[in-house]
Amino acid sequence: MESSIRYKEEGNRLFSAKDFPGAIAAYRRGLSSLPPVEHVDEISSSLGTVQDRGQTLEERQRLEVALRSNLSLCLLRLAEKAIPANHHRQQAEQRDRTQVEQFSTEAEKECSAALQLDPDNAKLWYRRGQASLLLATHSSNDALESHVACHNDSLLLRQAESDMKQCEQLLQQQLHKQKSENTPPNVVKGTIAQIVEARNALKRIETARLDITPNCPSSSIQQQTHFLDGKRHATEQLSKISRLETNEHITQSVTIPSDCDSSTTQASSNSMSNGSTSQYRIPTPSQQKERILLLLSRRQSTTDAETRNPIQHHHKQSIFPPQKGEAYFLINMNWWETWCRHVHLFHSYSNCFDSDGQERRDVVQKRVQEVEERNKRVLRLLPPGATLPLYLEKEKKDALGQGQKDNDKMSDSSSSSDKSDDETDIELDLTEVTPGVIDNSSLILNHESLARYLHCCNNETTESDVLLQCNLVRGYHFEILPREAYAALRSWYGEVSPPISRRARNVEDLPWLSQCHPPQSSVSSNTLSVRITLYPERWNAIATHHNYNQHNVINGNSSFTCSACGSPAATSKCTKCRCARYCNRECQRSHWPYHKSHCGMTTKRQHQDEILAARGRVGLNNLGNTCFMSSALQCMSHVTPLTRFFLSDQFLTSINENNINGTGGKVAKAYATLMKDLWMGGSQFSSISPTILKRAIELFAPRFYGVQQQDSAEFLSYLLDALHEDLNRIRNPPYVVLPDVDRGRKLAICGAETWGALCRRNSSYVFENFYGLYKSTCVCPKCDAVSVTFDTFNHITLEIPRISKLNLVVVLVRDHGEQEPTLPMKYCVSIPQNGTVDDVIATLSSMSGVPASRLKLSSVLIDKCSITQLHRDGAPASSLSNEDLLVAYDIASFSDATKINAVITQRSFHQNGTTESRVFGLPLLVSFERNIVCSEVYKKVWKYVKPFVLLGHDDTQSISSFEDHIKQCLRIRVTDPTQNPRTLRTGFDGGSTSILPFASQDKIVDLIGIREKEQIVFFSLEWVDVIALTADYDKQQQIHPSNFLMVSNHTSIIDYEHRVNRLHDSSAVTLDQCFESFTQPERLDDDNMWYCSQCKEHVKAMKTVALWRLPNILVIHLKRFEYTNSLNRSKIGTLVDFPIDGFDMKKHSAYNSSMSSDSQSEELVDDEAPMIYDLFGVTNHYGRMGYGHYTAFTRRWNEAGIEDTWAEFDDENVNEVTGNEIVNPSAYVLFYRRRLTL
């Protein structure tokens, strides 16, 4: 291609000298010297790498486009030169018209050929439209009949108009991109000048149409319309096919729906010219504004006057909240802002102050408030939660900032005069830019394999199931509009992407929302009861789990996995063995070095299945204390989207060799080689050596040089940074100032602005999948000023909290009073390690609702049915132990003189010739009134034991007779503290006895002889011949003693026992506890003081770090190594209980779409990204610090789901393990993936 480049340079030189025929000859010789496309691979095979071959194809394509583009420009210059001075068609010579037609036709052909290679080149669309315009206005049609000539010219004008509109659309997209990337003003001005030139060309086309149409019969107009529709459809198909062949991104053609609002159609037809064409014309900006406000107000207005003047009568309108089932459409926020600016939907803040800056601050603020009230009226017409476009927020900020200068005339006037004329012209031109065609493609999930799989596996896929990108924010990425308003905009401007619609649903029907946003009380009557969710319900359901499978069968069709990258729905096969399948030619090229050795003998599908089963199950040789690297690499290799990115050689187009922060692509290329050996060579090697990657890393990170033991998390952090810098698509990163977080604005929009600013410097596959955002909040202790900033992270380091809680199991025996009695309740009470008995009682009181003053904690010995100790208030909790049964009794205070407390033990008596007795059950501590009679004592004691007696009896008819039978066998004996009988003063039969009479109305204080200061008595509850001695007993006559030990479990005890039974470690902490500790506020120390902008000094602020934007791949580092000082370094061996499937990170995320920095408003759209994660990799560290060993647990996953089986990687050894071994005290780094998101 060197000769073609030389011819191109020669043509450029001749063009500068205005030697257009010579330049045309040079460009054509350059085109003829280009090698054919089918021979490029053969010519470039000597270059060796796929990257070089790909670059050769791209260079050849770019060179051909440049040659054809320059050639078409020269032809257009000759065509314009051939136009005579008197350019009216009746006076032009036949020879000149023939030359114009010849040059223009050739220029159109060259532009069409170049557009097949580069359909996004605005210059080519402009030049082809210019050629069509020249053909229509200066072609030689004298030999044709008038109606035929008119027909041809009209078609050419339609083609020219279509090309010019496509040119303007591409330029507008380029302008929006330049504005978001802070492009220099001179470049922006050049783009605006091109847009203006395209519009001028459209005006010339319209003028030419007016000259031609009066001479055209109506029949020819109808014929040309049908012909052009067919031609446009054919052009679209050819464009799509050409882009598929060149493996380029396909952009759908512009389509203008024929069905539109009736009022809009009528108004449009009236505004057309005198029957010139059937072309649909866009209404003027003022008409568009009026009609959109009319459509929005129809949803809320109640009278005709309100409908005609929606803004003036807005305060009278009845605001109806969105209803269930209403459809709303998403629209790109950049497009929406451009349209709002174009039609002046909102009032501008730029007129709130004079240009000379002489307005006082209070006057400016008053004007800003007036404009703000007007804009709020417009916002109320939009769906709830709508915000002002960002350009208005900037105008408002600038207006308030201008007013704060408060008569600083010299400063304001000088700053105004320093502004160049170019900048002023650019700002004025930007306000006149039309929004162009609606394009929502940036909102749609562009991962082809995932979108295809989810579309196939969902039998009920509809238009509303268009999958969206994660982390979309309303007000920054999109806005929502009702169906009527969106249909009007689409009918005016057309649409190049699928419509994105969502329906409102009740919050109760969305469990993940109803848990986080409980329904409000009836006081707030305007609270929305419906929400619009952006993401499918299956992405938010914790219970959803699909099994991973190498061969996915979707809707009865076998969908095989690509043998190279592993993506589903591979369509092509290896032409030799017909077994290996691929998704594209690049995958086949990448896989061929590993496949060719057994391609000929691969005759059965079973052998291919064995190869796929061995993918990723390859060990890494230890090169000398490199287990830290091996464990991290094994987990990284199971990051499915990143591994596919390297296996399919897609990374080659992203390598940034000139990035000073990277390694020149060396680490990325070495990592790609290792990934291919692990996933493509599984059938050939049981283990491989990572020597190439280790050498590449040692070259740029000397700390990993040699055979010293290193930290796996530190190595992983460097690897992610190196891969990101090597694959950064931003070749010349601009200087970016992170935006401030202003009060009153949605934090979601502020966070999205920060992320957008960061993406202008960072754009790589690693950055898109591994990086997230922290939200840091600092509060000044002096003036209470609050500062919010956002920072990036690629992994989260969590400190393992110390075991600061003491978990005690306590059984609560309630005094039910007049209520129906229930079994005692068992609780798990968590108190500080240095807590006291008072802390136990206070915590139990808050959990049970029993007043702390009525709770008395004791230790019970079950074998003897006795209370061994009543713990005094204030005693240290360290004296308590779970080895003894802790029982809390609901009793009156011992200092209450009107009460008396009885300690009751239970005994069973069996009169089988010799009286036998034994203790059993739970001792009771019951409070009585001092003047209580004996019969009431029996009733109250029966309430305590009734739940034990009736346990297991469900027949209501037999319960009454069984209860009467048990009561007759029950007696209460008065004893002393040593359980010896205590004789009553008077027996019920006149003799001495220690048993309380059952039906006596005597007071127990009189019978027992209780002294006035005596507060405790002792009873023995005796069960005569009703307690079963064996397991085989009559349930209608006896009670098993185990009933008296039954209790109910509180939810706290269920969680505690689950953790102890599963982990066999009651001192373990959960991953949730680690996150809670991570997000706790902390006071900054002297070395990390924060500068307060209001106090103008460094202060010890209160800082809180929270998670804001979570990445698709969440890497969690458990900080197990601590450094007390240079000599004391230790490892924390606490077990961290982390979930394996369905880890819900929503409770640890601070993201709230409706929250602003100082208020919280209603929000219709729930734009919170799915936060359900599944674990797929764990790095383990065994041993102590500096002398340990690293291993890894991983499992494979894809779009279908995730495997249940795990593999353990111990250097070169690979073994299959069960899921029970994953959670262990050695877990060090955890790898989670966002469910169903690649």
TrEMBL record:
Compositionally biased spans, kind Low complexity: 262-278
UniProt biased composition (Basic and acidic residues): 398-411
Pfam family for this entry, one: DUSP
Residue ranges constituting the DUSP domain according to the UniProt record: 302-505
Gene3D superfamilies, A to Z: 6.10.140.2220, Cysteine proteinases (3.90.70.10), DUSP-like (3.30.2230.10), Tetratricopeptide repeat domain (1.25.40.10)
GO molecular-function term, one example from the UniProt record: zinc ion binding
Transmembrane segments: none
InterPro entries membership: DUSP-like_sf, Papain-like_cys_pep_sf, Pept_C19_DUSP, Peptidase_C19_UCH, TPR-like_helical_dom_sf, Ub_carboxyl-term_hydrolase, USP, USP_CS
Listed name of the protein: Ubiquitinyl hydrolase 1
Organism classification: Eukaryota, Sar, Stramenopiles, Ochrophyta, Bacillariophyta
